[in-house]
User: Fold this.
Amino acid sequence: MNDNKIGDMAWLDLTVDDADSLKDFYSEVIGWKSEACSMGDYNDYTMTRPGDGHAQAGVCHAKSVNADIPPVWMPYFLVADLDASIAAVVAKGGQLITPVKSMGGSDTYVMIKDPAGAICALYCKK
Assistant:
């Protein structure tokens, strides 16, 4: 994850049926390099900037915990308190798309739908 501040887009993921071929597509189109990230019996990919290797995004298979994610670019916005943000989502007419999930260690995230129907994720570093 990038070292961002509250309110920043902390990460960007694309979840698709075939991450293997799509990582090559974005390598050719944008110039990103891909680094395999083992998910057990398959690899997802961290896409890095050429030159400095800075992580820019993830290209993931729609498997396991990602099986129910549509094939769209998913921004993850950094929040200070995930529980407070979830309460605000519900109070303001939004919906939770997923339960709260762990992202490596104690970091957590949840995918939401805003009242207009747009989807994003809220991410909290611990």
In short: Helices lie at 19-30, 82-91. Residues 32 and 50 are 6 Å apart (CA to CA). The mean pLDDT is 92.
